[in-house]
Each structure stands twice: as C-alpha cells, then as structure tokens.
Amino acid sequence: MERPQPDSMPQDLSEALKEATKEVHTQAENAEFMRNFQKGQVTREGFKLVMASLYHIYVALEEEIERNKENPVYMPLYFPEELHRRAMLEQDMAFWYGAHWQETIPYTAATRSYVRRLHEVGRVEPELLVAHAYTRYLGDLSGGQVLKKIAQKALDLPSSGEGLAFFTFPNIASATKFKQLYRSRMNSLEMSPEVRQRVIKEAKSAFLLNIQLFEELQGLLTQDTTDQSPSATPGLHRRESRRVQEPTAPETPRGKPKLNILSQAPLIRWVLTLSFLVATVAVGLYAM
Ligand code: HEM
C-alpha cells in the first residue's frame, strides 16, 4: 500500500484534520479565557456564560445533524445516544439559571455567528458538517474531561456532577475506544479531494469560531469587572477587540439585551450610595 510522504497531507481524513488543526488547537488552548480556566481561575459568571453559549451551539449543531442523519455525507457519524449534548445542556441550564432559563440565558454575538454558520453548513453545505462535529465532539471527549475536573474544584460543585452534565457521556464506556471508532467512521466517508480540502478548511474555521467566542466572553467578563462608571450603560458599551468582531451585550433568546447580575453591579452600587446619601441628609435634618 502506498504510504504518505512525511511532509505530505496524511491520507486518512482523521489524521489530516488532526494535523491541520494543530496550530489552531494550540491557539484555542492559549486563549485568555481558556488559559485562566486551566489555572482554575474560572468564576461562576464566566462558567455560566460559556455554558449558555454551548447550549445555543449544540442546539444548532444537533438540529443540523438531525436534518442530515440519513445523508451519506454525515450518516456514519450519527451517534445521538453516545454524543448528543442538548439534553445534558438543558439540565445544566436549569441548574445554573433556574426554572425560567429559557427566557433568561444570554445569547452573545459570537455565539450567534457560530450558530449562523452551523445552520448555513447544515442547509447548504452538509458535506462540511463533519468538520463541526469533529471539532466539538472529539474536543469534548478529550480536553473536556480535564476542564470538568477543574470546574468542579474551582466552583466547589458537588461530586454528584450537578451543573456539569455537559461533560458526562454516560453511554461511552471508553473515550479512547470511542474516538478510535469515530476516526474510522470519518475515514470511511466518500469524499472527493476538493470536498476534503473544504472540510479541512471548515474545521479550522470551526476552531476560530470557538476562539472568537472565548475572546468575546473574556471581554465581557473584563468589562464587567473594570467598568464602575455610573454613566455607562451596563454591559452595552463597546470595547476594543484584537481580531474579533466587537463583543456586544449578551442577549436573551428573544433578542432583548440582557442585564445580568454582573453587569448590574455598578448600578446597584450607585443606588445604594444614593440611598445612603438620602438617609444621611434625612438624619441630619432630623437632628436639627
Ligand atoms: C484548555 C483547553 C483545551 C485543552 C487542555 C485541550 C486538550 C486536549 C487534549 C489533551 C486532547 C487529546 C489529544 C490526543 O488524544 O491526542 C485534545 C484533543 C482535541 N481537542 Fe482539545 N483541548 C482544549 C481546547 C479545545 C478546544 C477549544 C477545541 C475546539 C473547540 C478542542 C478540540 C479538540 C479536538 C477536535 C481534539 C481531537 C484531536 C484529534 O484527535 O484529532 N480542544 N484536546
């Protein structure tokens, strides 16, 4: 059998994807949000934000997977029982945001861009869906397990796994074996060289969408902790961002800008200060 040359593109799609995304993977690991996360520097606010984004992303991804489950460009990778995350994320949303989570969870601009691309791919270029499924599911089965342990410790969560259902795959006994099976299924997809190139390009874009999300969330969190100005509209002003579109305030699923408790903090502080001043004046007047 002909073997690939050392510096040529590997024959197997799984190998080609791993190789082609090596650099963006490192970039993703080194995004500030992820670097902090790995150091155990993750707050409840940050964790809730990223989990809500993941909820929207997986709803879109799995909607497109369902649409294409019988399409030969995706069918061999259809593992709903083992992989699908929507039901798990719904549990996590209820844990983190309460019973009315559907009306209250944020929906940020970068999340919306990611979701838009997933729908475009599922509807118009379903042969690229493999790139998105690979990026998310194999990532979740790999680094995701480390992140789960870090979050559990940093956020002081119960060992029962509440709030972390997303990271749990009850129908996968061995992540290593399942990843091997998944890779062999990816390699079994019939694909022209032209499509293969587009799939590889799409996988890199999928990583970049994740990186843009991390950068946006980091920006929102930094903005919340540094902005104490009374005149600023909480969470709504714009800030500089290096390579990414400007982060905007998280929105609820209905599209209304959402003021989370984080972004309300300066407002609350001002209301308290004002109340204190009024009370001081009242006491002064009374004393006179
Ligand atoms: C702190 C962040 C991260 C850490 C520590 C991490 C760590 C890891 C580790 C240890 C592996 C296993 C490598 C192997 O089995 O050979 C892996 C694989 C993978 N990761 Fe990550 N990762 C991180 C972030 C991400 C992100 C953000 C994504 C994409 C959204 C991602 C996607 C993947 C994929 C697709 C694989 C499978 C590669 C392959 O075998 O083809 N990772 N990661």
From TrEMBL:
The EC number(s) this enzyme carries: 1.14.14.18
Protein topology in the membrane: Single-pass type IV membrane protein
Signal peptide feature range: none
Cellular-component GO terms for this entry: endoplasmic reticulum membrane
Chief subcellular location: endoplasmic reticulum
Transmembrane feature ranges: 267-287
A Pfam cross-reference name: Heme_oxygenase
Alphabetical UniProt keywords: Endoplasmic reticulum, Heme, Iron, Membrane, Metal-binding, Oxidoreductase, Transmembrane, Transmembrane helix
PANTHER family found in the cross-reference section: HEME OXYGENASE (PTHR10720), HEME OXYGENASE 1 (PTHR10720:SF1)
Subunit structure: Homodimer and higher order homooligomer. Oligomerization is crucial for its stability and function in the endoplasmic reticulum. Interacts with FLVCR2; this interaction is potentiated in the presence of heme.
Protein name: Heme oxygenase 1
Species classification: Eukaryota, Metazoa, Chordata, Craniata, Vertebrata
Gene name linked to the record: HMOX1
